[in-house]
Amino acid sequence: MNKGSHVVPPRDFDKTMSLKVIGGSSHKEFTKKICDHLGIQETKTQSFKFSNDNRFIIVDEAVRGDDVFVVQTQIKPVNSHIIELLMIVRTLRDASAERITVVLPYFPYSRSDKKDQPRICITSKLITDLLESAGANRILTMQLHSPQVQGFSNIPFDHIIAAPDIVKYLQDNWDLTNYVIVAGDSGAAKMIEPYTDALNLPIAMIDKRRIGNDEKVVIKSVLGEIKNKKVLILDDETLSGGTLIEDAKYLLEAGAEEVDACFVHANLGIGAAENLNNSPIRKFLTTDTIPSSHQGLRNLEVVSVSKRFADFIKRIHENESVKELNDI
After folding, report:
1. Which residues are catalytic?
2. Can you give the residue ranges of every domain in the chain?
3. Degrees to nearest 5, angle at CA 182 with 176 and 183
4. Domain 163-304 has CATH 3.40.50.2020
5. CATH number 3.40.50.2020 given to 19-161+307-323
6. What's the predicted TM-score (pTM) here?
7. Which pLDDT score is estimated for 88?
8. What is the crossing angle of helices 306-317 and 163-173, to 10°?
9. Which of the 8 DSSP states describes residue 168?
10. What is the 8-class DSSP label of residue 325?
């Protein structure tokens, strides 16, 4: 162990600890929804920058001996929100909070999950290290781009899947007659299993190759029957929108009747919304892990997952199992 490193020892926590929730500046609306579901008020904090761009954090309420959950998602400016999160966690640790759980609706740098090129940083591993060093005791997130990121953490790491919320929304609001669920690539094929099982729909998969770092892909074929079918492409996130658009064009050329798209995280980069709005994709479905004001998509339907996060927080606070909360 390096001298001065902060290691959180394993321990049993007292169920009588007070539950508190703090929201970083990235997604205050989501934090409020969580608090409303839990029937509590958000713990008051102040977060601002000085003229030299240095951030300053104040927790305005006592947290000594409390069970505190800090909510922060990835939106621009990403690195600024990470620093703010780390500062909040360290402030809570230094203020003697009994347990600190970092709640990341969308995990930052989740795509940086492996060393597939020489001399690069596995940044998602770095994020877990930084959170632990700052004083976090636990991490809670939704739909990781790569589930192995859980293994990067030395502290408990709970992973929420979005399928239960999205499946229920589709069942209640969409006519799924003649639909086929399509995995955008082999990596997404595993992710869509809960959807196909619960909705009892056929599955297809796009066989593609990703080349380089510019997010361009080459589509080889479609595995499965999509001719004269309505198609719902499912994926964990989209960034530029380019892959989704190429998928949609290919599926339509291959005989699909229409194409819709569902992605858990609307992690849209510059120009992505405009490109998607001008694409042949008929409508879009996503969750509120990222603020909807940052999305700008036409025909967009948003499924709130705040209740699931609140349920996980309640179970964690009461030291109860969370496994069944991922069941459909």
Report:
1. 208
2. 19-161+307-323, 163-304
3. 140
4. yes
5. yes
6. 0.91
7. 98
8. 140
9. H
10. G
